[in-house]
Amino acid sequence: MRGFSLKSLTITIFIACLACSSRFQTCSARKTKYAKHTKQFKNIGKDYDGYSYDNKFIDGSNRVTTPLKNADSSIFNVLDFGAKGDGKTDDTKAFEAAWAAACQVRGSTMMVPSGSMFLVKPVTFSGPNCESNIVFQLDGKIIAPTSSSAWGSGLLQWLDFSKLQGITIRGKGTIDGQGSVWWNDSTEESESETPNTGDSFYGGNQNSISGELSSKMPSTKPTALRFYGSSDVTVTGITIQNSPQTHLKFDDCIGVQVSDVSVSSPGDSPNTDGIHLQNSNGVVIYNTNLACGDDCVSIQTGCSNVFVHNVNCGPGHGISIGGLGKDNTKACVSNVTVRDITMQDTMTGVRIKTWQGGSGSVSGVMFSNIQVSEVQTPIMIDQFYCDKSRCANETSAVAISDINFVNIKGTYTEKPVHFACSDSLPCSGVTLTTIQLKPAQAASQLDAPYCWETYGELKTSTIPPINCLQTGKPSKNKLHSNGDSC
User: Fold this and answer.
1) pLDDT on residue 479
2) Buried-most residue among 48, 50, 172, 299 (CB within 10 A)?
3) How many CB atoms lie within 10 A of CB 252?
4) In the chain, what is the straight-line distance between the N-terminal and C-terminal CA atoms, in Å?
């Protein structure tokens, strides 16, 4: 009996040890998995200067929780990073955190979901340490703050994507710059633009943006959406509206594609270019509707291999190359094609504009299949461009050559053609083919076509007759080198 009891005791102790060991291993395993998960979350934001996780969630609590639904996910929803999406709370930090996570995963998607409105302060989504081929999926609405305090002394950009490779913004969502407070330089705003200053996800009112303007907006107005120093850039499907200044800008970019984009702001909103290109190569813009208060498309210095087609423009100032050469600078633009365009209620149709005193050149330009309706001046080259009451006369100029206008038809309200070229460096190689432009009102007495120092060829008869174009090339004694060719 005693032996049996001892044996039973031994078995009991053995079973207890096994149970304890199993429980210890389970706890240890959980702890190891938890620590690995925490380390992974911390590494998501490593080397990103926009926001540091520091073992804390966005609301500042010490809970160690990843907003990702699973560790292998490549979709980073701003709601999972603490965004409220109520149009009142400042969601900037949530956007920064979601970007920091997406930035570390090649081919990832940062999701801005539909059904929500996100109030976001000026922010930069930057590389160059980000992985490539990131998608910014915009299906909701992003709105800009209307408080002057959110902009400091003035910023050039609101939403800025910088130094990225293979960046795409796509979706059915909207970027709203709420620009009326800038255009009107008003100290008041409507209730619909006034964010609620109630409780914020970031702790009380301190991080909420007040809609009440304590002072006038800064004189420097921001571009709504800018891409800088990036390659293989795609923007498709989205709407950009009411930007304080330019709606969409590409600066120093290579390989840009814009399609099925809508830009919308009032025709009298100042300096609100639709799409602005600068120092960019290999740009295609198509199937896009542009309505704004300035150039629908503005092509500036440093641009080449630009193709714009199937675009609807108006209201606005038309599609322009320039102004180039301001403040005696060098400007180079080449190989630009603009075709299959409809324009209505615009200041100009297709235009090249340069300042006196500049240098460089514009060459290899084709404007074709342009349908205009009630456009003030459908065809223009202006080497005396000046945006103030008076500009000094200077002899140097940006050279303009090999410019082709083909199949431009419709109605005008002031002048059909205006060519004002430099005395010292006349325009050359200007050709006109199948131009049919009539007054919007048949009985109107409007200005006739105007040409000054413009040389080229009429390929066909035109309506109205453009007899002022000088045939051939300018004489050599009229050609003065601008001293700084491209």
Assistant:
1) 63
2) 299
3) 16
4) 109
* Alpha-carbon torsion, ordered 469, 472, 474, 475, to 10 deg: -140
Q: How far apart are CA 41 and CA 51, in angstroms?
A: 13
Do the Cβ atoms of 312 and 345 come closer than 8 Å? no
- Positions of E strands within 268-376: 275-278, 281-291, 297-299, 303-313, 319-324, 330-344, 348-354, 359-375
Residues identified as active-site: 294, 317
Question: Which amino acid, one-letter code, is at 22?
Answer: S
Query: Nearest to residue 243, comparing CAs of 262, 216, 260?
Result: 262
pLDDT digits (tens, 9 = 90+) for 423-455: 999 999 999 999 999 999 987 788 999 999 999
Residues paired with residue 418 on neighbouring β-strands, in sequence order: 380, 450
CA-to-CA dists, residue 33 to 28, 38, 62, 72, 74, angstroms: 9, 9, 18, 15, 20
Q: Structure tokens of 432?
A: 């006109």
State the Cα–Cα distance between residues 158 and 207, nearest whole angstrom. Answer: 18
Tens of pLDDT along 393-409? 999 999 999 999 999 99
**Average pLDDT, integer, range 109-129:** 96
Q: Tell me how far CA of residue 260 lies from CA of 217, 286, 338, 381, in angstroms.
A: 32, 7, 17, 29
Mean pLDDT score of the chain, rounded to an integer?
83
The pTM is what?
0.80
Indicate whether 37 pLDDT > 50.
no
Burial class (CB within 10 angstroms; exposed 0-12, middle 13-18, buried 19+) of 234: middle
- Asked if residue 70 has pLDDT above 60, the reply is no
